């Protein structure tokens, strides 16, 4: 049975609301209003950068909303260079490089900075975590959604195993060795600092893979226990996490490295956080 922690969630709601309002205001105006404190510099895409991509990469999507926006973004981000699963190892060493130590990567769930050379399958190593669980749609690790580095992240081997193919939701028991993460029989809750990252990766996959190129039509839903169906939940919680944890400098840099060096496509919800509400309400 799924267990939630209402007191924890309730305490987070004011912060979630404030961050969501600030993020939306920033995305619409480029600056904070005079009556409110400016958002932290590391969590704001500069107006110049957004304008540049709006005039070029995102130009077909600008001004659209809802299903039309989702379809336009699918057309845009489906134009990508695909890499092999073995090549993902080296890609993650660049995309998730520790900004304070170029010999290390930052692990998704633990936040631990670890040597790039410690990749593998042994206890204490890091491996390749499919944030959209590869069994949800049964796409495996073949080139396509199974190798799309917009949702592949370095993770501690044991924590990755604990997460398994569970959907995402609030609640559960603390994960040993990964403070701030919680899990139960049917869901996993990541630490606060990457809740938004997880949400935006799931929603990217839902837009990128629409069943038009031989892969399943991936969609978020409001369920857990989705099994091998091409769905990931819980959408209502993912939207909360997206508001609670807006894109930061690490996530923005990662998006840029993937675009410049590897796949040459972008996660639109990092560049335009307001598009989540436009598509999913």
Automatic annotation (TrEMBL):
Residues 168-187 are annotated as: Disordered. SUPFAM superfamilies: His-Me finger endonucleases. The keyword Cell division does not apply. GO terms for molecular function: endonuclease activity. Residues 1-34 form the signal peptide. Keywords: Endonuclease, Hydrolase, Nuclease, Signal. Coiled coil: none annotated. The keyword DNA-binding does not apply. This is Endonuclease. It comes from Streptomyces thermolineatus.
């Amino acid at each position: 049975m799924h267990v939630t922690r209402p007191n924890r969630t309730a305490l987070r709601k004011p912060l979630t609301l404030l961050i969501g309002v600030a993020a939306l205001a920033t995305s619409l105006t480029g600056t904070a209003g005079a009556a409110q404190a400016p958002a932290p510099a590391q969590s704001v895409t500069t107006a110049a950068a957004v304008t540049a991509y709006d005039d070029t990469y995102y130009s077909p999507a600008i001004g659209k909303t809802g299903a039309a926006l989702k379809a336009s973004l699918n057309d845009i981000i489906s134009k990508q260079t695909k890499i092999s699963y073995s090549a993902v190892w080296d890609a993650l060493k660049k995309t998730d490089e520790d900004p304070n130590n170029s010999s290390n990567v930052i692990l998704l769930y633990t936040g631990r900075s670890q040597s790039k050379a410690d990749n593998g399958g042994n206890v204490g190593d890091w491996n390749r975590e499919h944030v959209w669980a590869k069994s949800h749609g049964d796409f495996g690790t073949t080139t396509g959604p199974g190798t799309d580095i917009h949702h592949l992240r370095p993770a501690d081997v044991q924590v990755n195993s604990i997460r398994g193919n569970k959907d995402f939701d609030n609640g559960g028991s603390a994960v040993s060795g990964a403070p701030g993460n919680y899990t139960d029989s049917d869901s996993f809750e990541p630490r606060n600092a990457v809740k938004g990252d997880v949400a935006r990766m799931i929603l990217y996959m839902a837009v990128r893979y629409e069943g038009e190129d031989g892969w399943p039509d991936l969609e978020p839903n409001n369920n857990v226990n989705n099994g091998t169906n091409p769905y990931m939940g819980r959408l209502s919680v993912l939207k909360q996490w997206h508001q609670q944890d807006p894109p930061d400098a690490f996530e923005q840099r990662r998006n840029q490295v993937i675009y410049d060096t590897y796949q040459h496509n972008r996660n639109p919800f990092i560049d335009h956080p307001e598009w989540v509400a436009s598509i999913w309400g």
